[in-house]
Amino acid sequence: MKMLGKIGVGVVILVVSAVSIHAVQDAPTDANLEKKVVNDYNVYALPLPEKMDFAGEPVPLDEPDIRERLDRELLVNTYWQSNGLLLFKRANKYFPLIEPLLEKYGLPDDFKYLAVAESGLEYTSSPVGASGIWHFMKGTGLEYGLEINDYVDERYNLEKATMVAAEYLKKSKERFGNWTMAAASYNAGVGGMNKQINRQNQTDYYDLLLNSETSRYVFRILALKEIMEHPQKYGFNFREKDLYTNIPTIKVKVDTPVEDWSEWVKPYGINYKILKIHNPWLRDTYLKNASGKEYIIEIPEKGYYK
After folding, report:
1. Above 90 in pLDDT, residue 49?
2. Which of 9, 11, 221, 292 could serve as a FRET partner for 200 with CA atoms 20 to 30 Å apart?
3. Which residues form the signal peptide (predicted)?
4. Does the pLDDT value for residue 17 go beyond 70?
């Protein structure tokens, strides 16, 4: 850290003194505090979109309860500003990876917002154990053929997890007849949605009375879609350089056991931490691979890390 010169110190003292005097002069009173709150911080009601759709399926915004449920999620996600900015930053990194995978596996592009709703585009695990960007439970992942053990958890492999999400959602769409119900079943489960359909004799998500979480779920996805497609409309301002970017990688095949990943990565000029950032599905510092299964390891291209 550079030391301040005499002039610099004097300027700092002068500025601090001025701030201190200003603070004393503006000390809160009942009268001016109320005025400052009104003038310095404002919260606005949000105009609802005139039309909305999910995966090409219209949202019945002419119905009062539908408007109120969408309004709630728009307000919650607009005024949680720090989280909103992080979502924009991460989306710039992950949407270019997710979008072609959705197309490849036959899902409408809007399902990228389901991934946002599930995990905030982070490789996280929920309190009940749903993991990865798509937040699968272990049982669901195993049912759809993912490898999940102490050394490998493919729920954290973006391509394989997207493939499983697509299989699940497409089956749900076949069962329920539309993508909106498929999205709701991702939260409540096919069995949970079937139960309410049979109890209420209704087949449309917007006509069903559901538990609080599932009732809000599709509307959260809709709100995220609306906000992330129109950032300035909802007060989010950022530059391209503020956003996160994906780092290009090379793919390396591994079909043997690995005794120590931290040693294995040394020839590539990275450490274990960087290996894990790009391969979050690796769950330990070594790999038991007695069967000789082939894994694809992603190594960042040279020049991105010291």
Report:
1. yes
2. 221
3. 1-23
4. no
